[in-house]
Amino acid sequence: MVGKTGRPVGDSDARERLIVEARKLFVSLPYSKVSTRMIASRADVNVALIRYYFASKAGLYEAMLRETITPIHAQLKVTLNKGDFASIGDLMRTYYRIMAPNPDMPKLIARAMMMEPADLQRQTMEKIFNEVARPAIEVMFLQLQKQGVLRGDVCPDKARMSFISLMVFPFLIPPSLLTLQNIEMDETYLAELAEHNVNLLVRGLTMPKEENKSC
Which residue ranges hold the DNA-binding region (predicted)? Predict the structure, then answer.
């Protein structure tokens, strides 16, 4: 809705600040407990700017989700175009890099997907997932199978599940369990974990290079 006549007076970065503060509030509080006034106050902007930029709280919620995953969506496109395991590794690295400063975002996604089917949060999440992630993730492991990159005893569907699990689960582990394991889940650790998981996928799912060449 940018460019609408009668724009309220506000800073040029007001929209970005609203996205940032909305992300913080939506991941820490139930959707029903987050008000537009609360978001605007945290962003230090006029609440009218939410209507101007996003039309409503629901519009801001959807925009926040979409803009958070935009870099992941871009890497998904690269992965589909290249169709190799190196680009899948880059996809995992991108996901970890985006989620590291927003570690509660996967919890928000999981929470929304456990809502009733008619719930606005779940509908919004499913809409974005079906548009952005689901088709690409389904296709990329089938591509690897057709190219002879996957090991012969690896099922593409289960490879996809392993990939999703390695990406998502570290962000869903309860902090108390991390403490018991003496793990500090900071950005450095997550970057190292991304590399570890990429190596795990490559060694567990792909054909050795010499075998792949002879096919």
Answer: 35-54
